[in-house]
Automatic annotation (TrEMBL):
Gene3D superfamilies named among the record's database cross-references: Cysteine proteinases
Pfam families membership: Peptidase_C39
Residue ranges the record marks as coiled coil: none
Location of the Peptidase C39 domain: 66-197
Protein name: C39 family peptidase
Record-level GO BP terms: proteolysis
CDD domains: Peptidase_C39G
Gene Ontology, cellular component aspect: membrane
Amino acid sequence: MIEITLGSAIIYYFASHALENKKKPPEAVYYSEVLDSRDPSFARNHSEVVMIKPALENQFRGIVRQAYDYSCGSAALTTVLNGFVGTQLSELQTMEGLLKFGEYNRIIERRSFSLLDMKRFVTALGYESGGYKGEFEDLIKQNQPAIVPINYAGFKHFVVYKAYKDGRVYVADPALGNISFDQSRFQEIWENNTMFLINVPQEQQKNLLALQEADLRHVDDATINRYAIVEVQNSPEFMNKIADRASTMRKVIDTGPNSPTYNQPINTFMRLYYKRK
């Protein structure tokens, strides 16, 4: 009897540990589905793990998002300090530094930070910096991030210039995330052709603001306008056939009195429809 009890305990121990679930990563989604729901066999299952991330995580990749309507300057400066200089500051720490070393009374009065406030704080951190005025070509030649003021949608705003490629200017916007403008549009909104640069030794420079493949995925306005009014390429009948193939099929009795198959079994297709509440 003791041997049976001991054996059962050992079997239970190994079985429970063998079937113990591993800790799932927070970005993992596990799902399985039948490849063809009309196939009565459940042997054709498809299962896999999909790693997903919130869209905002990539939209604000490398960017310190501004916490207040008036804090685009401090958020843009923190973005450059962390992504290019290599500091690890929060926006709050940068705001405190700007208030301490900048023109405190004027900051409170205008509820915003200036390039002079930024220069004084960066100097206190031990780096050379300055605001400059130049042409668009001068901005490109720097080959480094720069804080630039823009006048966009009727508001004065600070963004971080990241790079220029194939006629587009890529910026890190503390309010909107990683966005881009075509060259002519950027030059229209670039205020006073001003740029703020921080001088950092090359061996210390970080590349957290470097362009990535996700930054290059954009659709220009001309393409959107062209395809927004294009007529449907395929007929509704053709699209219905495609939808029927992807849906679940079932047998029902035709209840339509005017149908040639009235009171006869026919195949119907169950589709899923979604709508916002």
